[in-house]
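Weekly sync notes, structure subgroup
Attendees: PM, AL, DS (notes)

Item 1: joint prediction request from the bench team. They want all two components modeled as one assembly rather than separately. Inputs as received:
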Amino acid sequence: MKVLILDGSREGDSLTPVAVLGMTSALAGRVDNVELFKLRDLVIAPCAGCFGCWTRTPGECVIEDSARDVLRSYVGSDIVVYATPVTFGGYSSQLKKILDRFIPVLDPRFTTVGSEVRHLLRYRRCPKTIGLGTLPSPDAEAERLFARLVVQNGLNIHQTVESIVLVGVADPESARCSAEKLLERAGVTS
Amino acid sequence: MNAMILIGSPKGRKSASFSLASKLAEGLRENDVSVSYELVHAGLRTEEGTRRLLEAVDGSDLVVLAFPLYVDSLPAPLTRLLELVAERRSRVASPGTPRLAAIVQCGFPESHHCDTAVEICRLFAERTGMRWTGAVAMGMGGSIGGDIRRLPGGGKNILDALIMTAESLAKGGAIPVEATTLFARPLMPRWMYTLFGNLGWRMQMRKYKARRPLTYRPYSQG
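Output from the run, pasted for the record:
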C-alpha cells in the first residue's frame, strides 16, 4: 500500500509539520511506501484555467512543472493525506495550489453522483482522501467547514473521506495518537 | 464610497467572473460608487503587484471577490491573497472595517456547489474584522461567454440580481436574499446543460487537434 502525504504548511507554521510527523510515525509499520511532498518547496504554477488538460493534452496539464510529479504519485497511491493549516475553514494556499492542478485526474464529461452532477473519473480509482488539518486554538466553525470541504472533495472523486483537525497539538506523540485513530477510521490497519 | 473588485480568475478580463463583476460595477457606478478592479493572479506575480493588492483592500469601503469555483473553494492565488490580507490586518492597530461581498460561479449545473466557498469568504471576513455583506453564487458558469445578455432568457435573472445587489451595496446594505435566489436560478434544464457540456468538450478537442483520446491515462496505476 502506498500513501502520499501533501504537506501544505506555510512559512512559520509550527503545527502542520508536527501533524505530518505524527502521521508519518503512525503509518510506519502499517504501509510499505510513504511519499511526502513539502509543497512550499516545490515550484508549482497556479492553474491557468485553460482546460488544456481536458481538451489539448487530455490527462496532463499543459504546464510543465513539479505538479506533474505530484500528480503521477497521486495516481499511483492508495491513500492521500491533505495536511494543512485550516485557513478560514479551507486549505492553505500551498495545498490549494496543487489541488487546483489535479483536475486532469477527472474526465471532463458529466455524470450524476447521488443527486448532484460531478465529472467522470479518468482512472479506475482515486486514492482515498484523508484530511489532516491544524489550528492553533479551537474554532468550531472552521473545523466544521474544513470537514465539509474534505467531504465535498471526496464526492468529486466519488468516494467517502475521513478528516480530523488537530487543535494546538505541538508534540509529535499526541499527533501520532490522533493520526492512528484517523487511519483506523479510514480502514488503514497494521 | 469606493469599491475594489478583485478578479480571482486566472483568465482575468476574459473570464466569466469579470463579465459578472463588470455588470455589478455598472450598477455600483450608477449609484455613485467609485469602482476599480485588480487581477489577483497577475498582481501576486510581483512584489509591487502584491503591495498594490494589499493597499487596495486597505483603502476600500467595499471589497468584492469575483471568482470561479476551483475544487469546491477559492482558486489558490485568491486563497494566498486572503492569507496575506489576514496577516497584514493582524499587524495593523486600526485596519479599518471594509465590507466584503462575493460573486461566485461554478461549472456544475447546481449553484449549491459554491456554498462552501461562500462560507470560507464569510469566515475570512469575520476573522479579519471585515464586515460580511453576503454573496451571489451560480451554477452553469460554463455557459457564460462574454456578453451576459446572450445567455438563455437574455441573462435577465443574473442582470436583475446584480442590479439589486449593486443598489443595496451602494446604500451600505447587505446583498438581498431575493438577489441571491435570482442569481442562483438555473439558466436551463440540467439535462440540457450537461448534454451541451459533454458535446462541447469534444468540439474543443477537435478545435485544438488533440492527439490523444479524451479518456487518455498518462500515468500508470501500478
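Discussion: Chain B has one domain: 2-187.
Action: AL to compare against the crosslinking data before next sync.
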